[in-house]
């Protein structure tokens, strides 16, 4: 894609969502890591409801390890896959205590070694907690990137990330990540994207197709 088109997309989304930010409530890197881990296949809204009490009860890795696993499971029961996530949290906290002095590591390569922490989670943590430029590709970022032809339809999540990193200036990676999420969450939704009022319709292959299909139905 031409650099001018990419710039147009970034600027337009920036105008639509100038205040885009991480919507997971947290006060430090450790809480953010737990929140992102919990957010897999779950809405940020639900995670925030759970962590409101969770982060009052558990302040450190030692706190999570000190209670029976069943108790932690009950504390996050409203979260999808809560049993697996409770195990990941326990194992993650034990590893932090054993190898990292109870602190969340700042390096991406170290973060992905933690139980339950994949590339996306690590990118969110380094960018939001440690101000290291990164683009985390979640379902919203992937969907929007492919619809706007910033990536190919069949690209893997890693391929989408690499293409965005190549096309977006490094100093804008983190901000672009947040704006793409807001754009996908509140405007370019999976089921009912707001194509008819979208300022990016002229560069969106998905939008053009949907509008054409809609027009054909009207003409019948």
UniProtKB/TrEMBL annotation:
What does this gene product do?
DNA repair enzyme that has both DNA N-glycosylase activity and AP-lyase activity. The DNA N-glycosylase activity releases various damaged pyrimidines from DNA by cleaving the N-glycosidic bond, leaving an AP (apurinic/apyrimidinic) site. The AP-lyase activity cleaves the phosphodiester bond 3' to the AP site by a beta-elimination, leaving a 3'-terminal unsaturated sugar and a product with a terminal 5'-phosphate.
Give one GO term, molecular function aspect.
DNA N-glycosylase activity
Task: State the reactions this protein catalyses.
Answer: 2'-deoxyribonucleotide-(2'-deoxyribose 5'-phosphate)-2'-deoxyribonucleotide-DNA = a 3'-end 2'-deoxyribonucleotide-(2,3-dehydro-2,3-deoxyribose 5'-phosphate)-DNA + a 5'-end 5'-phospho-2'-deoxyribonucleoside-DNA + H(+)
List the InterPro entries hit by this protein, alphabetically.
DNA_glycosylase, Endonuclease-III-like_CS2, Endonuclease3_FeS-loop_motif, Endouclease-III_FeS-bd_BS, HhH-GPD_domain, HhH_base_excis_C, HhH_motif, Nth
- What is the originating organism of this protein? Paenibacillus dendrobii
User: Could you say which cofactors this protein requires?
Assistant: [4Fe-4S] cluster
Q: Where is each HhH-GPD domain found? A: 38-186
Gene transcribed to yield this protein: nth
**Which protein family is named in the record?**
Belongs to the Nth/MutY family.
Q: PANTHER family recorded for this chain?
A: A/G-SPECIFIC ADENINE GLYCOSYLASE/ENDONUCLEASE III, ENDONUCLEASE III
User: In its UniProt record, which GO terms are filed under biological process?
Assistant: base-excision repair, AP site formation
The question of whether Hydrolase is a record keyword is answered with yes
Give the enzyme's EC designation. Answer: 4.2.99.18
Report the protein name in the record.
Endonuclease III
Pfam families documented for this protein: EndIII_4Fe-2S, HHH, HhH-GPD
Output the PROSITE patterns linked to this UniProt entry: ENDONUCLEASE_III_1, ENDONUCLEASE_III_2
Cofactor binding comment, as recorded? Binds 1 [4Fe-4S] cluster.
Per UniProt, where does [4Fe-4S] cluster bind?
Answer: 188, 195, 198, 204
Q: Which UniProt keywords apply?
A: 4Fe-4S, DNA damage, DNA repair, DNA-binding, Endonuclease, Glycosidase, Hydrolase, Iron, Iron-sulfur, Lyase, Metal-binding, Nuclease
Q: Taxonomically, which superkingdom? A: Bacteria
